[in-house]
Automatic annotation (TrEMBL):
This is Acyl dehydratase. InterPro entries: HotDog_dom_sf. It comes from Rhodopseudomonas faecalis. It comes from the Bacteria. The lineage of its organism: Bacteria, Pseudomonadati, Pseudomonadota, Alphaproteobacteria, Hyphomicrobiales.
Length: 315
C-alpha cells in the first residue's frame, strides 16, 4: 500500500470514525503487514479543566499524584486518534477484535497544560505468534517543536495469522509483567465508581457498549459492564503511596476487567531502581485485573540493552 497521511484540524469526531468499523476489513496478509498510515491531530491540547476532571475520575479529593496522572492524561484524551486509525478502511483487522493489553507511557520533557500541541499515531511494529497477532502503535505528542510525551500501545488480535514473524523493534512494555504477592497487605481498597460512564467515553472517544451496559456485557460473556482500563489505572495512581521523585514512565499490563461496583484491592511494592510496581485485584479473581510499574527514569529500550550486551560480550 502507498503511504497514507490523515490530518485532523480538530478533535476526531466519533460519528465520523466509528461507522467505518462496520466496513469490511482488508484482512491480514503477512507480506503486507500493517499499512504505512500516520494520523495527526493538530491543535490537540490538555486543558487545566480536563486535568481536574481526570483527578475527579481518579477518585481522590486531594490529588497528590499529578505527575503520575500527567503521564496518563494524553493516553486518555488522545485515544480517539488511535480509534480513528484502527477503524480506517485501510486497517487490516476489525477493531472489535482488538484487545488493548500493554501500554508504555513516557514523559520526555515538560508537558504544558492549555498549550497547542500536535498528536500523531502510527503502527511501528508487529509480531505474529501461534495464537495471535500483536501490533505496537506509537503515539507522539509535540509541543513547541519538541516531543514531550510518547506511548507504545500494544493491541492483540486472537486467532491464527500464519507463520511466526517479527517486524520492527519492540519498544513497548515487556511481555511479562511484574509479580506481586497477593497476600501482602493492601495499600488501599475502594469500590470501582459506577457512574459517569458516558462522560468518560466522551473523554476517550471509545463508546464500546461493554463500558456502558451490563446486559450487553453479559451477552459478550462478561460478568457485567466495566470501565475503560485507563480509568482504572487513574484510580490506582491516585491511591498509591507517595514515593520519591516524579515518575517519568508508566508501564501497564491489562489482565482482565474490573467491574463497576467491585471492591478493588491495590498492592504496591518498591522496585530496585527506585520506582514502584503495583497490582489491582477484584473479588473472585486470583490474578490481578491490572498491573503497573512506575519508573523515576526512562528505561533503556530493549534493543539498546541487547546491543550493549552484545558489545560487552564481543569486547
Amino acid at each position: 500500500m502507498n503511504p497514507h497521511r490523515e490530518i485532523f484540524a480538530s478533535r476526531p469526531a466519533t460519528l465520523r470514525f466509528m461507522p467505518k468499523a462496520l466496513w469490511p476489513s482488508p484482512g491480514w496478509r503477512a507480506e503486507r503487514g500493517c499499512p504505512d498510515s500516520q494520523f495527526i491531530w493538530q491543535d490537540y491540547r490538555i486543558s487545566s479543566r480536563t486535568m481536574a476532571r481526570l483527578r475527579d475520575f481518579a477518585g481522590a479529593g486531594e490529588f497528590n499524584h499529578d505527575d503520575a496522572l500527567l503521564l496518563l492524561a494524553p493516553h486518555i484524551t488522545g485515544f480517539r486518534l488511535t480509534m480513528a486509525l484502527l477503524t480506517h478502511p485501510r486497517w487490516p483487522l476489525a477493531i472489535w477484535r482488538a484487545l488493548q493489553f500493554r501500554n508504555r507511557l513516557r514523559l520526555l520533557g515538560p508537558l504544558l497544560l492549555d498549550e497547542p500541541s500536535e498528536l500523531s499515531v502510527q503502527a511501528c511494529a508487529w509480531r505474529v505468534h501461534a495464537k495471535g497477532l500483536e501490533v505496537d502503535l506509537h503515539t507522539r505528542l509535540q509541543q513547541r517543536g519538541a516531543v514531550v510525551w510518547d506511548s507504545i500501545v500494544t493491541v492483540y488480535y486472537r486467532g491464527r495469522f500464519g507463520a511466526p514473524l517479527s517486524h520492527g523493534e519492540a519498544h513497548g512494555a515487556p511481555s511479562t509483567s511484574p509479580t506481586l504477592d497477593p497476600s501482602a497487605p493492601p495499600v488501599a481498597q475502594w469500590r470501582i465508581d459506577n457512574g459517569r460512564r458516558w462522560e468518560f467515553c466522551r473523554l476517550t472517544g471509545d463508546y464500546n457498549p461493554m463500558h456502558l451496559n451490563a446486559r450487553y456485557a453479559h451477552r459478550m460473556g462478561f460478568g457485567g459492564a466495566f470501565p475503560h482500563p485507563q480509568r482504572v489505572a487513574a484510580q490506582c495512581l491516585s491511591h498509591l503511596a507517595a514515593t520519591g521523585a516524579p515518575p517519568r514512565q508508566l508501564d501497564l499490563w491489562i489482565k482482565g476487567p474490573a467491574f463497576f461496583g467491585a471492591e478493588a484491592t491495590l498492592r504496591q511494592a518498591p522496585r530496585d531502581d527506585g520506582g514502584q510496581d503495583f497490582a489491582l485485584w477484584v473479588p473472585g479473581e486470583q490474578r490481578p485485573a491490572l498491573v503497573g510499574s512506575l519508573f523515576r527514569a526512562l528505561s533503556e529500550p530493549r534493543c539498546q540493552r541487547e546491543r550493549s550486551a552484545l558489545r560487552q560480550r564481543l569486547a
